[in-house]
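> example.struct
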């Protein structure tokens, strides 16, 4: 019984998290040498990591059943905060760069509710899939359509609220999470293939209309011209070199200048606005070159691999769905952030998990890691299993 009550710690994930913490501090140190701000972001990032430790410990306490019981409460609180953000006065929810995404609280700083909504959505979609599959043991076309409807409603409510801010990057993360959860939910491929094909077709059509006839989209979808310009600046950066494509060209220049091993001995030389947050990977590439960039990417690959192992070992389906959702969010963040820094994807303002400076992003990621460590701590194998 003593062995059963022991908390099993996944030291592989703890080690990767520690290396990501050290990488974050070093990268932010070099990024802030551009002197855009006078704030010491390294010290603040360390403080956010310290705050994240008790969050991990707290998240590890409830078991799977307790998390299932409080999932809807957590989801409801996150939805309430998103609604409150829309109606809140500018004194506590200012508009920054045309977006109203943060609460600004005294002595705490900026809090972004949409970051915590990602975790809430992971828990909610996992619970919906678990409860649905437990109730409908014999799957039919009708039950699969019903499950798609449940997941769609739970996903598109927060997406609609986030697009009111507007925050396209976070909305894309949630959309990707939605499709990841569809893939692992057990829904028949006879339904999934048409859904995925239709979505890909609509996405292709939208991109074509952005390039060929943007006025049509503006007329029927009421999309701002700024979103169109973001895509055009990615495809034709030289035409927007002094405006929307400035960051894009600077990040490519910074990463290219790092070559194989970087020039950390002489510090950052290419100025990029918000280099410590959204464009942190450019600081890694510039100062540590291909070697340093590859090391950071390998850390993320190791983290994802260890979460996959946890998800495969657990005997609880709800826990495996949570692991799949967390993997989807981390993979999308890394792919999009690195992709926009090296120029293969448009800039969307998505941070690099555990590396970019930002309290809300880091704490939500620490919350997610706490869930994984919770699941891992309860994965026990017994002789007569």
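> example.seq
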């Amino acid at each position: 019984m003593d062995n059963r009550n022991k908390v099993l710690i996944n030291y592989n994930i703890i080690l990767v998290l520690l290396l990501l913490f050290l990488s974050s501090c070093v990268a932010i140190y070099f990024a802030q040498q551009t002197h855009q701000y006078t704030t010491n972001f390294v010290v603040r990032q360390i403080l956010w990591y310290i705050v994240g430790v008790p969050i991990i410990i707290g998240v590890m306490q409830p078991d799977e059943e307790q998390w299932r019981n409080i999932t809807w409460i957590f989801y409801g609180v996150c939805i309430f905060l998103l609604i409150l953000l829309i109606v809140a006065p500018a004194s506590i929810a200012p508009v920054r760069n045309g977006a109203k995404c943060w609460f600004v609280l005294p002595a705490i700083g900026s809090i972004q509710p949409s970051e915590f909504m990602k975790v809430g959505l992971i828990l909610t979609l996992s619970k919906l899939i678990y409860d649905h599959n437990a109730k409908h043991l014999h799957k039919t076309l009708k039950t699969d359509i019903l499950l798609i409807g449940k997941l769609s409603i739970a996903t598109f409510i927060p997406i609609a609220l986030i697009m009111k801010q507007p925050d396209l990057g976070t909305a894309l993360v949630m959309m990707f999470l939605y499709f990841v959860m569809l893939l692992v939910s057990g829904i028949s491929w006879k339904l999934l293939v048409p859904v995925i094909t239709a979505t890909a077709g609509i996405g292709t059509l939208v991109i074509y209309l952005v390039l060929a006839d943007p006025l049509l989209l503006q007329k029927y979808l009421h999309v701002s011209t700024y979103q169109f310009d973001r895509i055009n600046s990615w495809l034709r950066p030289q035409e927007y070199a002094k405006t929307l494509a400035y960051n894009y060209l600077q990040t490519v220049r910074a990463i290219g200048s790092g070559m194989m091993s970087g020039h950390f001995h002489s510090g950052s030389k290419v100025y990029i606005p918000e280099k410590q947050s959204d464009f942190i990977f450019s600081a890694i590439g510039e100062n540590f070159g291909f070697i340093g960039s590859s090391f950071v990417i390998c850390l993320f690959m190791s983290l994802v691999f260890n979460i996959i192992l946890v998800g495969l070992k657990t005997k609880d389906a709800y826990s495996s769905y949570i692991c799949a959702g967390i993997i989807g969010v981390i993979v999308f963040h890394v792919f999009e952030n690195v992709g926009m820094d090296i120029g293969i994807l448009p800039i969307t303002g998505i941070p690099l998990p555990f590396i970019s400076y930002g309290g809300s992003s880091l704490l939500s990621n620490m919350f997610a890691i706490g869930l994984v460590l919770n699941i891992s701590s309860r994965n026990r194998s017994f002789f007569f299993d």
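> remarks
The radius of gyration is 22 Å.
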